[in-house]
Specification:
4-stranded mixed β-sheet, alpha/beta, about 230 residues, globular, transferase activity, Galactosyltransferase C-terminal domain-containing protein, transferase
C-alpha cells in the first residue's frame, strides 16, 4: 500500500513555521516510506479546503492508495494513525484520534523542550474535534465531494466535510488516541465578514445532515462558484 502524507501549508508566523518543521519531521519518522507533500492551492487568502483538495490530487497522481491529511500544527499518535490507514480500505473517512488537546503557549514550549504532551498545560481539550488529521482513500475523498472551497480562510470547512462524509460514505471511523495542537497566534478572524460567511455556509450543511440528496445538491452548487 502506498501512503501519501499531505500538509496544507503556506509559511506564516515564526511559531507556525517552526511547528511545520516539527510536524513534518514527526510524520517522516512515523511514515518513512510514504510520499510526503507540502501543498498550497494558491488561493488568497490561504485555503485549507483548497489545499487539501489539491493535496489529494497530487498524492493520487503520485500513486497513493491512502492519504493522510495533517495540519501543520497538529501531532497524531503512531498507533491510531496506522490503524486508520489499515482500515481506510472500507471507503470511509477516518480520524486517527478520539481526543483533542490544544496546548497553551507555555505548554507548547514545554512539549518542544521534551516534556510529555499529557503533562503540558492546555487551553482546550475535548472529544468532538473533526479536523486536524484526516485519513481516507482518494476515491472516497472525491465521492464525498472533497472540501468546499467556498470556505475561505479559517473555519467550518472540517465540520461541513464531516457531514458530507457521514452522509455519502457512511459513519466516519474514529480510533482511540489523542491529537496534540501546538500553540500559535490565532488567525481565525472571529467575527469578521469572512468568518461569518463561513459559519452561514456551514449551517446549510448542518441543515442537510443525514440527507444524501440535499448534500449532493450543496456539492453541485460548487461548480458554479469561481475558485
Amino acid at each position: 500500500m502506498t501512503v501519501g502524507v499531505v500538509i496544507p501549508w503556506r509559511p506564516g508566523t515564526p511559531e507556525r513555521n517552526a511547528h511545520h518543521e516539527y510536524v513534518r519531521a514527526h510524520l517522516a519518522a512515523l511514515l518513512p516510506d510514504a510520499i510526503h507533500l507540502d501543498v498550497d492551492s494558491g488561493h488568497e487568502p490561504f485555503s485549507r479546503a483548497g489545499s487539501r483538495n489539491e493535496g489529494v490530487r497530487q498524492a493520487e497522481a503520485a500513486g497513493a492508495d491512502v492519504v493522510v491529511l495533517c495540519d501543520a500544527d497538529t501531532l497524531a499518535e503512531p498507533e491510531p494513525v496506522h490503524e486508520a490507514i489499515a482500515t481506510a480500505a472500507d471507503g470511509r473517512l477516518h480520524l486517527p484520534y478520539s481526543w483533542y488537546r490544544g496546548l497553551t503557549r507555555d505548554g507548547t514550549r514545554a512539549y518542544l523542550a521534551g516534556a510529555q504532551a499529557a503533562d503540558c498545560p492546555v487551553d482546550l481539550e475535548h472529544g468532538w474535534a473533526t479536523g486536524g488529521v484526516l485519513i481516507i482513500q482518494p476515491a472516497s475523498w472525491w465521492a464525498m465531494g472533497g472540501m468546499d472551497e467556498r470556505f475561505t480562510g479559517w473555519g467550518f470547512e472540517d465540520a461541513a466535510a464531516r457531514i458530507c462524509a457521514d452522509a455519502l460514505l457512511g459513519p466516519t471511523g474514529t480510533h482511540e488516541g489523542t491529537i496534540t495542537h501546538l500553540w500559535h497566534p490565532q488567525e481565525s478572524g472571529l467575527g469578521s465578514p469572512q468568518h461569518v460567511a463561513n459559519g452561514q455556509l456551514c449551517q446549510r450543511y448542518v441543515d442537510a445532515t443525514g440527507k444524501p440528496e440535499a448534500i449532493r445538491a450543496l456539492i453541485a452548487e460548487r461548480t458554479s462558484v469561481p475558485a
